[in-house]
Design brief:
By secondary structure, this protein is α/β, with parallel strands linked by helices. It has helices spanning 13-23, 52-60, 63-66, 78-91, 150-161, 195-202, 223-233, 239-249, 255-312, 317-331, 333-358, 361-392, 405-412, 416-428, 451-461, 463-471, 476-480, 489-496, 500-508, 520-524, 549-583, 598-613, 618-631, 648-661, 669-677, 686-689, 704-718, and strands spanning 42-48, 71-74, 109-113, 119-123, 141-144, 167-170, 185-188, 212-218, 399-404, 435-436, 440-448, 484-488, 530-543. Strand 3 (109-113) and strand 4 (119-123) form a beta hairpin. The radius of gyration is 43 Å and the shape is elongated.
């Protein structure tokens, strides 16, 4: 792949830089192309109203919004959308406008002259078939949220797209993939959760380039803040749950133990080889000594024969003396060594003198510089290799691990997407703790219609079946009575050192391998009498299994700090959105009902533009502060001001009442805080626990972390 194109309207500069960095194109000049955050044809306004419902009714009848054909009103809660849609249908039915919605004028009488010259009245449109748009009430409104059935959602969206529905009161579930260019107005009945959400939602208006209007209602007391904080706290998790995840994601293996055993065996073999080598060397030394003695004896015989030959030839006296001196030199070791030393010293001296004459100072300096540079490069290479070895020094090469999604979600009481996010954090860590793989179905069930005889025959031919039988813990007696084999296919492939994909293909092919059929009728039909099924959708990743206890603690610390950094940054961002919108808001809606405040509109657009141009990553800043505080063994105070007016005695009474009513449940402090804040979780779904209004959303005004800590103390005291 040579080209990537990512499109979004709500990415800050910090987010875009982070994406470019992970793609390796952060330093390319044209890697990121940015445009304006808010289109110029959108007119923005904000108001703080005590009675928002009444203010909304009056705003829709004002000059700005009464002429808008298609309007989307966003709410935070599902119940609020249903209530508000019903209110709009009821209160605005008797309202009549100067001009009909969707550009259709009211029927009017015109005068025309007939053939006789007399004037007669003619009603425009009379006698014609009425269109479906004219039959629809002007202020028709419907709700849209994820709690509706698929048929109901399709019906609402179809009517809105066809122009038959003027107002849709919806949660954020409405608008994804909405391809309607003539949406004329976007109204936020509640505070947007972020500027990204705000820009994304108002961007659905005025896509045809015509003027469109957007308005936000703020609660003067900031009650929407407590409602939106619920979504932030829904993604947080306790350290105990993090430890459970780390335990499941990094199961201990025996690679280190096997490596040590292999090393001991290799050392034992090396010692045996050394002993054998020494014995061989001793034998060779003795044989070599005997051969040297034989050679020396033969040499002495040759010398004696030469001497006798010279004497027989009657050589002269001078030659005889030189021959005697030569003979003495050859036979006397001391004379031989002195002669060799003198000759070697003279030769060395002459060679050094010649080299010093021929070698220039420049060459010597060049040689020193080259040697120094080579030494530095060698030292750098050694340092790089050492750092690489420190990062990659691990006995275990990694194992493929599958965590059954339903099981891990219930165990951690955390949503699937939140667990996947934590695994991505570990993958993006500088040490790359895990490698996230594609989800798989981790359990394989094979049914043999031929019973145990067919199972035994297949095991003798197919290695994965034989390995699955050895992995199965069923006793031999019970196994012979079974015709079904169930095993974790990911664990099997990992223990055998096989690739998962070929193993799964081979297992699926068993159904059509006619050579494995015991019945000829099945083989004639192209079947084998074997049924293979895969189940249990699982999260799949690769991770080492030889992490030490300190490394596991560091992983837990990293995840805990990352979660807290995300929580703190999102809470600060929510507060920033509220303060920014309140700074440009009108005191009441009527100040912007007929005409938009151009100065406030310009200020709000400038605030949004500066937010998206900010290149500082708030999450990284919070993460660095948390890491620094952890080293100093200090805690960072919460960014939310705690309410001193909270009556903790009432909270304690409600906690004891919750434990008394649901005594069969094992609560944690976070679970109690989630129930009192109305936060849905896998173990405590809103469909079930939301029915009990005695506890659900009972203490939404209490800061979540304070409530969690207090609930933990009460649980300990109650037990």
């Amino acid at each position: 792949m040579r080209c990537f194109l990512g499109l979004t309207a709500t990415a800050t500069r910090a987010t875009a830089n982070s994406v470019a960095e992970h793609l390796g194109i952060a330093h390319d000049a044209g890697a990121v192309i940015r445009g304006g955050a808010v289109p110029p044809n959108l007119f923005l306004s904000v108001s703080c109203d005590t009675d928002r419902t009444q203010a909304l009714l009056q705003l829709l009848q004002g000059r700005r919004f009464s002429q808008c054909d298609s309007i989307i009103i966003y709410c935070t809660r599902r119940e609020q959308t249903e209530k508000l849609a019903s209110t709009l249908r009821t209160c605005l039915q008797s309202t009549r406008l100067a001009s009909g919605w969707n550009g259709q004028d009211e029927p009017r009488e015109e005068e025309e002259e007939d053939e006789t010259g007399k004037k007669k009245k003619k009603t425009k449109g009379k006698g014609k078939k009425k269109s479906s748009k004219a039959a629809v009430p002007k202020w028709d409104a419907e709700c849209y949220h994820a709690g509706l059935t698929a048929a109901q959602r399709r019906r609402v969206q179809k009517r809105f797209m066809a122009g038959q529905l003027r107002i849709v009161v919806a949660t954020v579930a409405f608008g994804m993939g909405l391809d309607k260019s003539d949406v004329r107005a976007i109204i936020h009945y509640n505070l947007p959760r972020s500027f990204e959400s705000y820009v994304q939602e108002i961007g659905r208006a005025g896509r045809d380039g015509l003027p469109s209007h957007c308005h936000v209602f703020l609660d003067p007391e900031g009650k929407d803040m407590s409602e939106l904080r619920r979504h932030v706290y829904a993604n947080t998790v306790d350290r105990s749950a993090i430890k459970k995840l780390v335990k499941r994601a990094f199961p201990r293996c025996e690679c280190k133990k096997l490596h040590e055993q292999l090393g001991n065996a290799n050392r034992h073999k090396d010692n045996e080889l050394l002993d054998l080598d020494e014995a061989c060397n001793d034998a060779l030394d003795s044989n070599l000594e005997a051969e040297l003695q034989a050679v020396e004896l033969q040499h002495q015989k040759d010398v004696d024969a030469r001497v006798q030959e010279l004497r027989d030839n009657k050589v002269n006296t001078g030659e005889t003396e030189r021959f005697d001196s030569t003979l003495k030199l050859c036979t006397d070791p001391s004379e031989n060594s002195n002669f060799a030393k003198s000759n070697s010293l003279d030769s060395v001296k002459r060679s050094v003198e010649s080299e010093s004459i021929n070698e220039s100072p420049t060459d010597a300096q060049t040689f020193c510089v080259d040697f120094k540079s080579d030494s530095i490069e060698h030292a750098d290479r050694q340092q790089d290799q050492q750092s690489t070895q420190e990062n990659s020094h691990r006995v275990c090469g990694g194992h493929e691990i599958a965590m059954v999604t339903d099981s891990i979600v219930q165990e951690l009481d955390l949503r699937e997407e939140s667990i996947a996010t934590l695994l991505c954090y570990l993958e993006l860590h500088p040490r790359r703790w895990v490698e996230v793989l594609q989800p798989v179905k981790s359990t394989c069930t094979i049914k043999f219609y031929g019973g145990y005889p067919q199972l035994r025959g297949v095991a003798q031919k197919i290695p994965p079946i034989a390995a699955a039988i050895s992995l199965n813990t069923t006793t031999a007696t019970g196994f012979k009575k079974s015709s079904t084999l169930t095993f974790p296919v990911v664990e099997l492939a990992d223990k055998m050192g096989w690739d998962l994909a070929p193993v799964c293909r081979e297992l699926r092919a068993l159904q059509w391998n006619t050579s494995l059929a015991l019945d000829n009728s099945l083989s004639n039909m192209g079947q084998s009498g074997i049924l293979v099924e895969f189940s249990d959708l699982s999260m799949h990743h690769r991770a080492p299994g030889d992490l030490s206890d300190s490394e596991r603690d560091s992983v837990c610390d990293f995840l805990e700090d990352r979660i807290q950094a995300e929580e703190r940054s999102q809470l600060q961002q929510l507060q920033f959105v509220y303060d920014s919108l309140k700074g440009v808001s009108c005191s009441e809606f009527w100040q912007c009902a007929d005409a938009v405040d151009e100065e406030a509109d310009k200020q709000l657009k400038q605030l949004v533009r500066s937010y998206f141009e900010d290149s500082n990553d708030k999450t990284k800043e919070e993460l660095a502060a948390l890491a620094k505080a952890r080293k100093r063994a200090k805690s960072i105070p919460s960014s939310i001001t705690r309410d001193d007016h909270v009556n903790w005695d009432i909270v304690a009474r409600d906690i004891r009442a919750l434990l008394g009513v649901h005594h069969d449940h094992s609560f944690t402090g976070r679970a109690v805080a989630r129930i009192f804040h109305g936060i849905d979780s896998p173990c405590y779904p809103a469909e079930v626990w939301g029915r009990d209004r005695r506890f659900w959303r009972k203490h939404l005004d209490v800061e979540f972390n304070s409530l969690r800590k207090f609930a933990t103390q009460e649980l300990i005291r109650f037990r």
